[in-house]
Specification:
Helix content: 40-55%
Number of helices: 6
Radius of gyration: 19 Å
CATH architecture of the largest domain: Orthogonal Bundle
CATH topology of the largest domain: Helicase, Ruva Protein, domain 3
Length: about 170
């Protein structure tokens, strides 16, 4: 693997683009055969772009995938750093829950240990990035219906809610 990068086609060639907006481009090189291969994978959802991670095949892709995530918000399903997906992009799940609870005047907070517990469970259950929303909904369903004044998510709460779900 030579390079992996994200591409935003929304202003490609200064013309309107018809098709998926985000793409991941992977450049591969065989030194033995002097072959080069460029692989393009388009993310089907422009609002939440997701592509499969290649870090299990090429560990060096870790940094490149994090850079594409930081620059374009492309989520790499199977990437080992799922915690950032929960908190950093503008449409991050934690930010969505903050906005949802704020609509009802509810203060929402989550501990760092709780974020780690959510990621650990997503990996344990082999849910990867796409399973993070389901875990969040499992943890917060009661609060969404009861509408308390304050919702504070702890690691103990995460483990308790998820142990009930798997029982």
């Amino acid at each position: 693997m030579i390079d992996l990068c994200g591409v935003d086609y929304s202003s490609y060639k200064d013309q309107p683009w018809d098709g998926p907006r985000y793409c991941v481009v992977l450049h591969l090189l065989s030194i033995d055969h002097n072959w080069r291969l460029r692989l393009k994978v388009f993310a089907p959802d422009d609002d939440f772009p997701v592509a499969a991670s290649v870090t299990e095949v090429w560990s060096a892709a870790n940094w490149f995938e994090r850079e594409a995530f930081d620059l374009y918000g492309i989520v790499f399903d199977g990437h080992t750093d799922l915690r950032r997906i929960l908190t950093e992009p503008k449409n991050a799940l934690i930010k969505q829950y903050e906005r949802l609870f704020a609509l009802d005047g509810i203060e929402f907070s989550i501990d760092d240990d709780a974020l780690d517990a959510i990621v650990d469970k997503a990996i344990e259950f082999k849910l990867r990035a796409r399973g993070l929303r389901g875990i969040g909904e499992t943890i917060l369903t009661d609060a969404m219906y009861e509408l308390p004044e304050k919702v504070h998510v702890t690691a103990d709460m995460v483990l308790q809610k998820l142990s009930k779900q798997s029982a």
